[in-house]
Structure formats: C-alpha cells, structure tokens
Amino acid sequence: MEIVTRVADLQALIAKKRTYNSLLGFVPTMGYLHEGHTTLIDKAKSDCKTVVVSIFVNPTQFGVNEDIDRYPRDLTRDIELCRAHGVDILFCPEVIDIYPRGKYTWVDVEGEIAEIACGAVRPGHFRGVATVCTKLFNIIHPDRVYFGEKDFQQLAVIKRVVNDLFMPIKIIPVQTVRERDGLAKSSRNSYLSPTERQAARIMPKLLAAAKEKCESGVSSSVEIVDAVKAASKESPMFEFEYAIVVDDSTFEEITNIVRPSRILIAGKIGKTRLIDNIQLIPCATVVKNQNF
Amino acid sequence: MEIVTRVADLQALIAKKRTYNSLLGFVPTMGYLHEGHTTLIDKAKSDCKTVVVSIFVNPTQFGVNEDIDRYPRDLTRDIELCRAHGVDILFCPEVIDIYPRGKYTWVDVEGEIAEIACGAVRPGHFRGVATVCTKLFNIIHPDRVYFGEKDFQQLAVIKRVVNDLFMPIKIIPVQTVRERDGLAKSSRNSYLSPTERQAARIMPKLLAAAKEKCESGVSSSVEIVDAVKAASKESPMFEFEYAIVVDDSTFEEITNIVRPSRILIAGKIGKTRLIDNIQLIPCATVVKNQNF
Q: Which CATH number fits domain A2-174: 3.30.70.360, 3.40.50.300, 3.30.930.10, 3.40.50.620?
C-alpha cells in the first residue's frame, strides 16, 4: 500500500496503476475507520482492480458550532486497517492540499434533498460534503465510489451531484454495519460514555418500532413519526431531533407510504449526535384489504 | 462535421474520435457566431486533433429581467460557419438535455471575482455560467477549452472553478476580436440600431482613453475610472454602468496600478448592454521618476 498526502503524487501513482479497462474504486472517509468503512473497502476490492481510500476531515462540512478538532483521529490504526484490507493507495491530504487557493468555489445542492432532515439541522453541511466530494472525484477520477447507507441523505445528495453535473462515476451504496445491539457503526460512537452507549440502544429500537408499525399496515408517515417521537421519550438521556419519512430512491418527503421508503432518525445523547435510518416496505396486503 | 443534440450521442461520437495522446479542444458558445467565435475555433483547431463546439443558450445565466427569448439565434448560419472552420462535432442540446432532472445542483463562486463588476449587476449570472460550464466539461472531457478575453470576468470565474475543483482542463484565453472602429465583436451588437451602433463607438474610445492615461503615468485606479466616467458623458446615448480596474491575473480590484492590470467597462446603449476591457500596463519610467 502506498500512502500519499500531495495531490500530484496521488495522481502520478494512479496514472501508473490504472490500466486499460480496469476499474478504479474509491472510498472517501474522514478516518477513525471502523467495520462500516472496511465493508466499503471490501466491496470496492471485490469490484475493482485498484482501490483508493482517502482520509480527510473536511473543515467545510462542519458548522461553526461543531467542533472539528474534537473529531476522533487515529491514523496509525487507520493505516493498519487499510493495509489489512488490501487498499492500494491511501490518500491523506492536508486542508491546504484540498483548498490550496482558499474556499471560494462551492458545489451547492438546492431543494428538499439537501434542505430537510440533516440539511435543516446542519446548514452548509451538505455544501461542504458536495464540494469536497467533487474535488476528490476530480482528483482521482474513480469509476466507482462507495458510500454507506448510514448517511442516507449524504448518499442521496452525492447521487444528485454526480447525476446533475454529469460526472462519469457510479455511486455504490453499501448497507449499514451495526453493533450486536443494533447501533449503527460510527466514528462518533467513540464519544459516548459507557452509560451513554447503553442509552444509544434507543436508536435501533426506534427504527425497529417504525418498521414494525409500517409492516403492520400503518401507511401514514405522520402516525409513524409520532409513534417514534413518543417512544423516544422513554429514554430520558435521548434528545429527539427529527424523524422523517422519504422516498427510498428520490429522497422526497412522503406522507403516505405506498412504495419503498425510508425513515431517518436523528437525536442526541449528551453532546453526541446520532443518525440512523431503515427501509420501510409498505404492507401491500393490508393496503389492499383497506380497499374493500 | 457531425451535429448532435443528445448527450449520449455526443459522448459516443467523442469516444469514437478520441485517440490516445491526441488533444480534444472545446469551444462553448451561445450561438449566433461571429469572428470572435471563429477565432476561438481556429485556435482550437491549430492546437487539437478534435474540436467540439457547443451552441446552448443557457437559461440559468440570464436574470429574471433579462430576456433570454430575445437572444439572437441563427442555427443555419452557425452550422455553416462551424463547418467552414473545420469543427469536428457540433453539440446543440436542448435545455432538457443539460438540466434533465431540473435545476438543483449549482457551482457557485464566492468572493470578489464573481461579486464585483458584472457579478454585482447580474446576480446569479456567474453561478449559471459556472454550472453550465462544469456540466459541459464533465460531458465532453476536453483537454483544452477556449474563451474570449472580451468576457474577461467570465474567463476569471471559469479559471477559478477549474482550479478549485481540480478539473484536468487547460483554459486558453483568446484575444478579443474587434470591428474596424474598435467595437468588440459580440452577438449582442445585432441588437443595435444604426444610430446606436454609431454611439457604441464610445466603448473602444473609453478603453483607449484609460490606456493612454495609464501609459502617461497615472497609476491611480480612481483617477482613471473617474476620467472614463467623465468621458462617457460626452455620448448622450451611453448609460454608464461601471468601470473597474482589476489585477490582470488574479482579478482582484486594485487601487494602484503597479503591475499588469485590466480596466473593465460596462454600459448600455438603448436596451443593449455592452461590456469590454483592455489591459493596462503601468508606465514604469514615470513611476520611477516620481520616486526622485
């Protein structure tokens, strides 16, 4: 595995490794890698001849009140993990490498897709994500890029950018990897104290409750969201932020679940913000019966 | 010459024509071609094996009060001109081809470069330009793109986008082509009535006056701009909009001309908005003498 920090060095390496008709896979990360990331890497390795991983804690996707310096880092461990999973090139740029002329050009997504849910709670966040991904995609020119479904809105925003700007890239979504008790793997879980970690079990429970409600025949988003909100009060440490139901493929907010949808939930435990989501499949039988 | 309107057809054609190590040149236009455009095409032809020209009147770079439907069009003549100048592929998409999923993703440039001069007068204009160029660049993947210096701020904005987003493209500026009396060639000149066309001669005169003033030893931007403003009043048909001096390479507004700079002038004659610019070279000798 080669480790590079400069854009020019990365591009020289890629030019050397890239051969005609072979795929280049890319996994962008902010480091502090866990099984969610290594699953992305394994998927990329199984699809592509060459795999590039980037580790870059992108300042522009953090809000003014979000502490970027607090974001967990462990480059030594990340390097070990990447090496163990067969990564070909690890790209660890500094801020100056990605924003060499300052922060002037932005890729900005308008509309529900970037403005509801986390877009409303973290203004500017998706602009930062869209901009840094565009930069990285243009530097690396991957054929395929791998994103976890845990950050479902991020995935939707990136798909939109790639489609709207005609980038010749295939975005590959990869299923969320979970802890034994169902909590989605996240670098931010490391912020949780043991007591908070216990309380975090509320997240998968809320998702399971929403899924069950939908499968039992409830098709009203409001009803499901209200149930989630009510259930969230059972955990005194959990500060509910939002629950929202969107179309699974278009990310449009929907009121009546008649096609594959997804509920996204966000909340805080102590200072730690957690997000997660699950697919909701409408209960066709019940819906049919209601027509009688 | 092949003429295509669909993105997929264009990309198939380019894939067929592009050969290893040969350059692909691109000239983006809004049509109604004149000698300014054909000079860009000729330059592209002399540099590159394959030349693509696009004709697309991009709606997102027109303001709400700017009449896009009034923009002059003559596709038959444009096709003839492109053919005569050896264009390989002419791309004439519809709005739906370039914005197939609506208008959600934007490339936005912040800072002086996009906010002063035309950026102040035409809010949103450069966002439209940056977005459509990014789309076209990603569709075509040219090695070199040719822009006229007449739209000097547009050139600066595009250079910034290409650099900031790490696009592997070389932007080639081409000198402004002028009519015999000095008026810069522009599709918009066709709006001018014979009387207005006469009055339009004020534009190159103002530029010449600014250049002369600078060469005679005046290094103060304010003084030069004020002189231009005063001189513009000599033409009762000319409605002065702005005059601004910027650094020739960074596009920063400057107050003291001690390095190659550029004065940009904009104004209206009747309903027709005209812009133009000229390089200002500081008079080194005079500046030196002032130090004694």
A: 3.40.50.620
